């Protein structure tokens, strides 16, 4: 009979409004993510928003605003772990940060809806959508600008492909050139490349070298008989 004692049509309607708002706003955020084929799309963002709304609404019904505030703190940390699952690291490239942040925003929208802050939930959803849509042209415009070696924090990778039997010789020459250019090494990786070759990848920390210096190194390295190919890149953090 405890169920009947706790039942209230007004409370049920209030909860329904919160969940509907969380569902609609979470779906809008998720649609934008799904349209761009991101890891966390329509269903994931909707479920995060609705789930946050359910927990906060339940805490609000049981213990008022104080209980809701405590649950919101747990929602924030819990969604942080969920978002970490969307972040993937491939060498120096990191993908999924924006998707994880969007899940965090969806949880915030749901939490607002669950706390019966409907207007705040709508505003939060609009700002999340604006960040993912209106700022995209700005990001693309910035990324098209030429990189200034003095101002940017770029991590360079210098890759040398050489016959496996000449690996030590090539590494010694590479280290010598880096020492002459006063370029400290952050890391050196050697991986198989085909049947008989290896790829030596030297990672240089931010601000340690300029692109012109790398070009000069490539000219010297490619002139060595054992070296078959040399190139450099600057991996960037992407979504």
From TrEMBL:
<keyword id="KW-0997">Cell inner membrane</keyword>
<feature type="transmembrane region" description="Helical">
    <location>
        <begin position="42"/>
        <end position="62"/>
    </location>
</feature>
<feature type="domain" description="MgtC-like C-terminal">
    <location>
        <begin position="156"/>
        <end position="232"/>
    </location>
</feature>
<feature type="transmembrane region" description="Helical">
    <location>
        <begin position="6"/>
        <end position="30"/>
    </location>
</feature>
<dbReference type="Pfam" id="PF02308">
    <property type="entry name" value="MgtC"/>
</dbReference>
<comment type="similarity">
    <text>Belongs to the MgtC/SapB family.</text>
</comment>
<feature type="domain" description="MgtC/SapB/SrpB/YhiD N-terminal">
    <location>
        <begin position="19"/>
        <end position="139"/>
    </location>
</feature>
<dbReference type="Pfam" id="PF21770">
    <property type="entry name" value="MgtC_SapB_C"/>
</dbReference>
<keyword id="KW-0472">Membrane</keyword>
<protein>
    <recommendedName>
        <fullName>Protein MgtC</fullName>
    </recommendedName>
</protein>
<dbReference type="InterPro" id="IPR003416">
    <property type="entry name" value="MgtC/SapB/SrpB/YhiD_fam"/>
</dbReference>
<comment type="function">
    <text>Virulence factor required for growth in low Mg(2+) medium and for intramacrophage survival. May be involved in regulating membrane potential by activating Na(+)/K(+)-ATPase.</text>
</comment>
<feature type="transmembrane region" description="Helical">
    <location>
        <begin position="68"/>
        <end position="88"/>
    </location>
</feature>
<dbReference type="InterPro" id="IPR049177">
    <property type="entry name" value="MgtC_SapB_SrpB_YhiD_N"/>
</dbReference>
<keyword id="KW-1003">Cell membrane</keyword>
<keyword id="KW-0812">Transmembrane</keyword>
<dbReference type="InterPro" id="IPR048640">
    <property type="entry name" value="MgtC-like_C"/>
</dbReference>
<feature type="transmembrane region" description="Helical">
    <location>
        <begin position="100"/>
        <end position="130"/>
    </location>
</feature>
<keyword id="KW-1133">Transmembrane helix</keyword>
């Amino acid at each position: 009979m405890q169920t009947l004692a706790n039942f209230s049509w007004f409370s049920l309607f209030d909860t329904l409004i919160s969940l509907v708002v969380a569902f609609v706003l979470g779906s809008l955020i998720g649609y934008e993510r799904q349209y761009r084929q991101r890891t966390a799309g329509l269903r994931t963002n909707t479920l995060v928003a609705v789930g946050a709304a359910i927990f906060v609404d339940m805490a609000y019904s049981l213990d008022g605003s104080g209980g809701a505030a405590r649950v919101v703190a747990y929602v924030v940390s819990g969604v942080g772990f969920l978002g970490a699952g969307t972040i993937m690291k491939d060498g120096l490239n990191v993908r999924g940060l924006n998707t994880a942040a969007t899940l965090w925003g969806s949880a915030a929208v749901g939490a607002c809806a669950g706390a019966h802050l409907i207007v705040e939930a709508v505003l939060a959803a609009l700002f999340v959508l604006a960040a993912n849509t209106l700022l995209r042209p700005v990001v693309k415009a910035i990324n098209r600008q030429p990189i200034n070696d003095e101002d940017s924090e770029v991590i360079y990778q210098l890759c040398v492909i050489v016959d496996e039997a000449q690996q030590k010789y090539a590494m010694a020459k590479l280290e010598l050139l880096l020492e002459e250019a006063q370029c400290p090494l952050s890391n050196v990786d050697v991986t198989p490349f085909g049947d008989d070759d290896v790829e030596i990848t030297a990672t240089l920390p931010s601000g340690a070298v300029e692109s012109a210096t790398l070009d000069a190194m490539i000219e010297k390295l490619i002139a060595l008989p054992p070296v078959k190919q040399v190139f450099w890149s600057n991996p960037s953090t992407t979504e």
